[in-house]
Amino acid sequence: IIIGSNGYWNSVNKGFQLTGKFPELGEWFHYAMSWVSGGTQRVYINGVEIGSTSAASSNLRLGGNIALGINEQSTKYTKYIFGGQLHKLNMFSEELSASQIREMSEAGMCSVVEEKYETRKLKWEQILTEQRYGNVTEFSPESCLPDHIKYLEARLNETESELGLTNSRLLATETKLYSTEHELKTVSTALNSTVKDLTDTETQLNETKTELAEKNSRLDETETKLKRTEQELLTVSTTLNHTQSLLEDARRLETVSRWDVLFTSPYLNKLFTTELYDQLVNSWD
Predict the structure, then answer these.
(1) Whole-number Å distance between alpha carbons of 132 and 249
(2) Predicted local confidence at residue 11, as pLDDT
(3) What is the DSSP track for 87-127?
(4) Coil, helix or strand for 213?
(5) N-to-C CA span, the chain
């Protein structure tokens, strides 16, 4: 990674020049460079993108050193010495969006907006604890307080605006909740009525089942009586048939004379013996 103060060097894994697009000497400005391997490399000044180029498909190698104010190969490039002031250098492990970079720029040089990002891997407060070499002098920006106040005011306005939107959404949600509660009460009333109807129907069903069971029991008893009656009827019918047969025989006998008995099988064509005579005498009357 090589970054120059005049726009000549802007390189992560591929360099490009932006000379003439940087602020004049003596002016503080916010510089940000974002990139993604195989994607786009962008440079922002004071939150505004001023140039971009394609990024090579390669990742940064782990390890190495960071040199602030001078090229790391100082024995070869002794003329590239940074004589200005540097404040709040941070490096992130994600590609920051244009809105995120603009937020950091507008927050001012003394803000702590960058501290909310968990992807901040190289931190300015850690750099300040490292050993310094050469003519390095610490300074405290005189404009910290006004910028910080300005940033806080902007954040307060944003928060108030968000609060207003939240209140509007809350009011809409409360209205919807009230409507939902009313609908729920209506549904609950209808449900209670349905449950009552269902209970009444179940009661009627149980009563009908009991009545059906009683009728089935009476039907079984009636079928048993019917079978018994049929059996008795069959017996009576058999008796009746026998009686009718006897009656018919009796009626036939009423028309037979005493002398006709001699033409029956016991006497017809038989010798008139003493035994036959006795039998005839005994049955004559």
Answers:
(1) 153
(2) 82
(3) ----EESS---HHHHHHHHHH-TT--GGGG-TTEEE-HHHH
(4) helix
(5) 157
Which residues have CB under 8 Å from 71's CB, separation 6+? Answer: 2, 77, 80
pLDDT score at 148:
57
Q: What is the pLDDT of residue 213?
A: 92
Q: How far apart are CA 124 and CA 117, in angstroms?
A: 13
CB within 8 A of 138, min separation 6: which ones? 128
Question: Which pLDDT score, from 0 to 100, does residue 8 have?
Answer: 80
Q: Please answer whether residues 272 and 262 qualify as being in contact, where contact means their C-beta atoms are separated by less than 8 angstroms.
A: no
The angle, 0 to 180 degrees and rounded to 10, between the axes of the packed helices 144-254 and 98-107 is 140
Token digits of residue 214: 């009683």
Q: In sequence order, what are the beta bridge partners of 273?
A: none
Looking at residue 264, its pLDDT comes to: 67
Residues in the chain, how many? 285
Residue of 37, 55, 36, 34 lying closest to 45 (CA atoms): 34
Q: How far apart are CA 285 and CA 282, in angstroms?
A: 7
- Dihedral sign, CA of 127, 130, 136, 142? positive
Given a contact cutoff of 8 angstroms between Cβ atoms, the answer to whether 21 and 8 are in contact is no
Longest dimension (CA), the chain: 182
Q: Is the Cβ–Cβ distance between 31 and 64 less than 8 Å?
A: no
For the chain (length 285 residues), average pLDDT per consecutive 10?
78 83 87 91 94 86 76 60 84 94 89 90 88 78 64 78 92 92 91 91 92 92 92 89 77 62 68 76 66
